[in-house]
Amino acid sequence: MSRPEVCVQVKRLAGSEDLPLPEYQTADSAAVDLHAAVTEAVELQPGDIKLIPSGLAIALPPGYEAQVRPRSGLAVKHGLSLPNTPATIDADYRGEIRVPMINHGKAAFTIERGMRIAQMLVTPVPRIVWDVVDELPDSTRGAGGFGHTGS
Predict the structure, then answer these.
(1) How far apart are CA 89 and CA 59, in angstroms?
(2) What are the structural domains of the chain?
(3) What is the pTM for the complete model shown?
(4) CB atoms within 10 A of CB 49
(5) Do the Cβ atoms of 66 and 89 come closer than 8 Å?
(6) Helices (DSSP H) in the chain: which residue ranges?
(7) What are 72-116's pLDDT values in tens digits?
(8) 108, 43 contact by CB (below 8 A)
(9) How confident is the model at residue 2 (pLDDT cuts 50, 70, 90)?
């Protein structure tokens, strides 16, 4: 079965020509991996947050967003994540994609040039049209939240 495709313009920024473009790691991967475009190794101490460049800028078509998410292997093995996950890249943003990384682990972690640091998913985004009403329809859940369905 073929998948839908969306064309995203990408610009390699100066000094990142040697890095690969983001790519899918398997045939069924949902997201592409972003690479670190650091000029020298960056050490993240436990609790540190640092903004890591990707060396790329993109132009998404109207009606799309890119979500930047942590890589599960870095999260599980080293406690690395993004403090604002998922981060949203809007269709009208043209600056460099930079990844805010946080070290929740117990040991320092070094980010090297070319390392796969995050995942990026491009997805359609519908526009909201508000329908102001006096009452909302009933549902099985109702107003229950935050642990309402069990632990």
Answers:
(1) 10
(2) 9-124 (2.70.40.10)
(3) 0.88
(4) 13
(5) yes
(6) 72-78
(7) 999 999 999 999 999 999 999 999 999 999 999 999 999 999 999
(8) yes
(9) confident
